[in-house]
Amino acid sequence: MCTAFEIRCQCGKENARLHHINSILPEETVENVHCPACSPHAEFDAGRMLRDNGWIIAYDMDVVRLHAEKLGLSGAQITPEAVFDGGFSSWQGFTPNDLEKANAEKEQLAELASRDMQGYLKEIREWSLVRERRLHEEGWRKARGAVQA
Ligand SMILES: [Zn+2]
Q1: What pLDDT score was predicted for residue 146?
Q2: How many Å lie between the centroid of ligand 1 and the Cα of residue 118?
Q3: 105 C-alpha vs ligand 1 centroid, how far in Å?
Q4: DSSP code string of the chain
Q5: The model's pTM
Q6: What is the distance in A from the centroid of ligand 1 to the CA of 93?
Q7: How many angstroms does the Cα of residue 35 sit away from the middle of ligand 1?
Q8: 16 and 74: one domain?
């Protein structure tokens, strides 16, 4: 089982949805989150924070170290990047609010499904590819691998 939860950013303007693969790390791993509006006010500490497209996630690295063995990490490997890129604690989807945005876009496509199932299946495939490419271009860390040469 994985854990998914929502956390409000420091200024209270935005919510981020986070996802913990296999629930190895507890929710309290995430100390706080800064949205693009409040991240400029955060004192950035690369030892426990990760930047992604204007957002910052601050991890409690003591909690991470406590579970490091289960993550397959040790010593200098225990970094915010390893936590995020390993999916141990990262956005649910590609971005902090990917789920809502994707659902809204999918709903628009769903209307097509009632009329033209084949067309819909083709559209939805294309949609997810185009979408990943767009998120990659926007600079989201999780969409980095989305574009094949
Ligand atoms: Zn904020």
Answers
A1: 59
A2: 42
A3: 24
A4: --EEEEEE-TTSS-EEEEEEGGG-S-GGGEEEEE-TTTGGGS---TTTEEEETTEEEEE-HHHHHHTHHHHT--GGG--HHHHHHTTSSEESSSSTTHHHHHHHHHHHHHHHHTT-HHHHHHHHHHHHHHHHHHHHHHT-GGGGGG---
A5: 0.89
A6: 19
A7: 4
A8: yes
